[in-house]
Design goal:
277 residues, alpha/beta, Rossmann fold, 7-stranded mixed beta sheet, two-stranded antiparallel ribbon, 9 strands, methyltransferase activity, SAM-dependent_MTases_sf
């Protein structure tokens, strides 16, 4: 996506109070009965737990695309030195309110573009970047900025919605995908149009990271469903959440990690920048 202000207008609208800013705030403030919201809350919990377990005293952490600060708030509550940046002033207003409501310092929140941040090179030991790259057609500049910001040996937690989940969650979509694959030699590859918030193929994202020298450390697949037939939901939200949680527990019990790359809704990847001790 070009860097022009016009190109970013849809993103600015999406995360404004006129559109989805209040919804993003509410999904982390209450236990909303929505499978997608539940998956995002679980993503927050996985990210926070990983950073807490793997951080050392004195580490500095950046929440890049911090939104309404669900991750940043938990990190600061645990005493970590964490700052955040987001493109939307409305999301940052919610973030400040969330921090203050828990008696936390509301400073250290910057408004800006994740492709061109105000911090010097090698400023952070950990960068958390949840969902951001799905909102840019060309997210290579985001990866380049993360590379610049991380210290040698630093850790990146990056997440996005998995493009394969809607295929494997709907047998009709799976059949259509298989048929399209068979017809590709005749019809040529299908051209995908860009839409903000799009789902991504994990193979493309991880290849881009590894081309920059990042080294794989860990992966967490989060949430199953929504379960559908020809685009029609099979269950209500409450039942879908319970089923997703049971499937997650089953996969954890039997250590089924690799299939989750293809099946789950949210992909959370952990990479390390080369260098350091």
């Amino acid at each position: 996506m070009p860097d022009s202000d016009l190109a970013m207008a849809p993103v600015r609208r999406r995360f404004s109070r006129a559109d989805a800013a209040d919804r993003w705030n509410a999904m982390y403030a209450t236990e909303t009965e929505c499978l997608e919201d539940e998956n995002f809350r679980t993503r927050r919990d996985f990210a926070v737990a990983y950073v807490l377990i793997n951080s050392r005293p004195g580490d500095r952490i950046l929440d890049l695309g911090c939104g309404t600060a669900p991750v940043l708030c938990e990190l600061r509550r645990s005493g970590l030195d964490a700052v955040g940046l987001d493109y939307s002033q409305d999301m940052l207003a919610h973030a400040r309110t969330r921090l203050r409501s828990q008696g936390l310092d509301a400073s250290g929140l910057e408004q800006g573009d994740c492709r061109n941040t105000p911090w010097p090179a090698a400023s952070f030991d950990t960068v958390v970047c949840l969902g951001v790259i799905s909102y840019l057609e060309d997210y290579d500049p985001v990866l380049a900025e993360i590379d610049r910001l991380l210290k040698p040996g630093g850790t990146l937690l990056i997440s996005f919605r998995n493009a394969w989940n809607p295929v494997f969650s709907d047998p009709v979509a799976l059949a259509r995908r298989a048929l399209r694959s068979l017809l590709t030699p005749l019809l040529g590859p299908r051209r995908e149009s860009f839409a903000i918030g799009r789902f991504l193929d994990f193979r493309t994202v991880t290849a881009k990271l590894e081309a920059r020298g990042f080294r794989y450390r860990d992966f967490f697949g989060i949430g199953f469903g929504p379960f559908r037939i020809a685009g029609h939901k099979l269950f209500g939200e409450r039942r879908a959440i319970r089923l997703s949680q049971r499937l997650m527990a089953l996969c954890t019990r039997f250590s089924l990690r690799r299939p989750l790359r293809w099946l789950t809704d949210v992909s959370l990847w952990v990479y390390r920048k080369p260098g350091g001790a």
